[in-house]
From TrEMBL, chain A:
The keyword Transmembrane applies. This is Sorbitol/mannitol transport system permease protein. PANTHER family: INNER MEMBRANE ABC TRANSPORTER PERMEASE PROTEIN YCJP, MALTOSE TRANSPORT SYSTEM PERMEASE-RELATED. Belongs to the binding-protein-dependent transport system permease family. Residues 72-262 form the ABC transmembrane type-1 domain. Keywords: Cell membrane, Membrane, Transmembrane, Transmembrane helix, Transport. It comes from Tropicimonas isoalkanivorans.
Automatic annotation (TrEMBL), chain B:
InterPro entries: AAA+_ATPase (IPR003593), ABC_transporter-like_ATP-bd (IPR003439), ABC_transporter-like_CS (IPR017871), ABC_transpr_MalK-like (IPR015855), ABC_transpr_MalK/UgpC-like (IPR047641), Mo/tungstate-bd_C_term_dom (IPR008995), NA-bd_OB-fold (IPR012340), P-loop_NTPase (IPR027417). SMART domains: AAA. This is Multiple sugar transport system ATP-binding protein. It holds the Pfam family TOBE_2. Keywords: ATP-binding, Nucleotide-binding, Sugar transport, Transport. The keyword S-adenosyl-L-methionine does not apply. Residues 4-234 form the ABC transporter domain. It comes from the Bacteria.
Length: 276, 334
């Protein structure tokens, strides 16, 4: 029997949920408002901020001072590149673990996940030195590699759970029908796993886009993505709230819009295939 | 050609031996049914023949050639799975054409063969649909179509009808039998349903715990089951078994009488008893009769018009010409 919920109780719940949602969204909203204010108005009291006139000058200043488009393209390249490279490695790995599991497959999966529990700063020095010695500091290819490595366990885990949902008999049927391993993966497995792969790809693009630790530490000017672009505004000259806000909005807007449009896929992805 | 020979084929999963070494000869064009209770190794045996599992010992010959180490696709066999295993993202046409595409056949050839298979299987109107838009029976036909187009040396069916409802099952059973008559290709069919085995097979292989209990035509198994297991498994309702004095009187440890070989009378007979539950099927009626001489009730078949009620006193008389006698090991006595 469905639980009966009376109307007043329901509206109370809605009110609480709406309030919580607003509280969580408020900082983003405030940044959005500040970004359209002048630098002087931005540091005034909240009420004065709200009543002050609107202006686009911060956006202009930010674009003038630092090349937004270059950072944007770096972010795009790094997040797409690391996700693509990750898939290339993760698809065969997840295939093997899902369809020809060995005795220790579960352990391997847990071990991979455990690497995500290591604080990244613990390996900063060795990775920095490796990057320096290989000459890939402040290069996009270097960042693609390091972000791919950081997200690989998640990509493999997600694909593994999606692949597990595909009945083995279908792959056996493909084998009986004369498909080679490559054809089996290409024509049967991959198309069937597309919804799962889509959410994996989306989540990883977002994770790479938002990643700040490695992108800040391993880049200078050339390969710096949008995270470094924002960070450059919390700088020695003192805080310029309006400009910092404008930079933040410019950095998060693309991924926010993408996330908004792909909500459904993302929810499926984040529940790791637990909900169909 | 589709002659399949198993020589001392065995299969173990780790320490566990699921199929002890066994020999089996399947002639070209035969319809062979592997039947047995669940877990008897019948599906594993089929998968060994298909090449989806590696044998642990012995060899598999297909048309005289050693196929033991040949990958599944190269064995020239086609398989129909219990779950149909259709490719959900492909249309019916693409599903059926898939093996041809993998074989590198040109598009025109593919289309011709697909249309032909679709005509045979009444799928012509559904070619552009996805499997999700088909009924269970239609999906099964697509799976069969995918097998047919390859023109395999033999068809392997792994419980293909168990996901269908009863009415559809009877229909598909006839269709598969009909297909076999038309194509005259070797078919190996796995089922746990002895009715399917009896109605479809040229030859039945009864399996228990990976061992072949008996191989023979349906009527051979029905008339002369080699042991208690086969006697109990083949025939529906199952054979009644009686041990004790009545069996000893006939120089056996256990005797078996089929429900259809027992006469029911209200006034005279060998074994007096009381009617328990009755099952009216219209054409026949099955009575469960508790006889004074035995612990277990016996099942007997009577005509549909016989009307006995719960608690009625009756007499049962076994038809001595159709009495099966078994020794202490459960083996058939001559």
């Amino acid at each position: 029997m469905a639980r009966a919920v009376n109307t007043s109780r329901k509206s109370l719940n809605t009110a609480i949920a709406a309030t919580l949602g607003l509280i969580m969204f408020f900082p983003v909203l405030w940044i959005l408002i500040l970004s359209f204010k002048s630098e002087i108005d931005a540091v005034r009291s909240p009420w004065q901020v709200l009543t002050a006139g609107w202006t686009m000058e911060s956006y202009g200043a930010v674009q003038e001072r630092s090349d937004y488009f270059k950072h944007f393209m770096n972010s795009v390249t790094i997040s797409l590149g690391s996700t693509f490279l990750g898939l290339l490695i993760a698809i065969p790995a997840a295939w093997a673990m899902a369809f020809v599991p060995a005795k220790r497959t579960k352990d391997v999966l847990m071990w991979m996940l455990s690497t995500k529990m290591l604080p990244p700063v613990g390996v900063l020095v060795p990775i920095y030195l490796i990057f320096r010695n290989l000459g890939i500091l402040d290069t996009r290819s270097g960042l693609v590699i390091v972000l791919m490595l950081m997200n690989l366990p998640i990509i493999i885990w997600m694909l593994y759970t999606y692949f597990r949902e595909i009945p083995g008999e279908i792959l056996e049927a493909a084998r009986m029908d004369g498909a080679s391993l490559r054809e089996e993966v290409l024509y049967v497995l991959t198309p069937m796993a597309i919804p799962g792969m889509a959410s994996t790809v989306l989540l990883n693009i977002i994770l790479s886009w938002n990643e700040a630790f490695w992108t800040l530490n391993l880049t200078a000017a050339q390969a710096a993505p949008l995270t470094a672009f924002i960070a450059s505004y919390s700088s020695p000259e003192g805080l310029f709230y309006a400009k910092l806000s404008a930079a933040s909005i410019m950095a998060i807007a693309p991924i926010l819009i993408m996330g908004w449009f792909s909500q459904k896929q993302l929810v499926r992805g984040l529940t790791f295939g637990a909900v169909k | 050609m589709g002659q399949i020979t198993l020589n001392k084929v065995s299969k173990s999963f780790g320490e566990l031996e699921v199929i002890p070494p066994l020999d089996l000869e399947i002639k070209d064009g035969e319809f062979v049914v592997f039947v047995g209770p669940s877990g008897c190794g019948k599906s594993t045996l089929l998968r060994l023949i298909a090449g989806l599992e590696d044998v642990s010992g012995g060899e598999i010959l297909i048309d005289g050639k050693d196929a033991t180490d040949i990958p599944p696709a190269k064995r020239g066999l086609a398989m129909v799975f219990q779950s149909y295993a259709l490719y959900p993202h492909m249309s019916v046409r693409k599903n059926i054409a898939f093996p041809l595409r993998m074989a590198g056949l040109d598009k025109a050839h593919q289309d011709k063969k697909v249309e032909e298979a679709a005509r045979v299987l009444n799928l012509a109107d559904y070619l552009e649909r996805k499997p999700g838009q088909l009924s269970g029976g239609q999906r099964q036909r697509v799976a069969i179509g995918r097998a047919i187009v390859r023109e395999p040396a033999a068809f392997l069916f792994d419980e293909p009808l168990s996901n269908l409802d009863a009415a559809l099952r009877v229909g598909m059973r006839l269709e598969i039998s009909e297909l076999h008559k038309r194509l005259t290709t070797t078919m190996i069919y796995v089922t746990h349903d002895q009715v399917e085995a009896m109605t479809m097979a040229d030859k039945i292989v009864v399996l228990r715990a990976g061992n072949i209990e008996q191989v023979g035509s349906p009527l051979e198994l029905y008339r002369t089951p080699r042991n208690l297991f086969v006697a109990g498994f083949i025939g529906s309702p199952k054979m009644n078994f009686v041990s004790g004095p009545e069996a000893q009187k006939r120089d056996a440890t256990t005797i078996g009488i089929r429900p259809e070989h027992t006469r029911v009378s209200t006034d005279t007979g060998d074994w007096p008893g009381v009617v328990g539950v009755s099952e009216h099927l219209g054409s026949d009626t099955f009575f469960h009769v508790k006889c004074d001489a035995f612990e277990e009730p016996l099942t007997v078949r009577a005509g549909g018009e016989v009307d006995l009620k719960y608690g009625d006193k009756v007499f049962l008389t076994p038809d001595s010409a159709h009495l099966h006698r078994f020794d202490r090991e459960g083996l058939r006595l001559p």
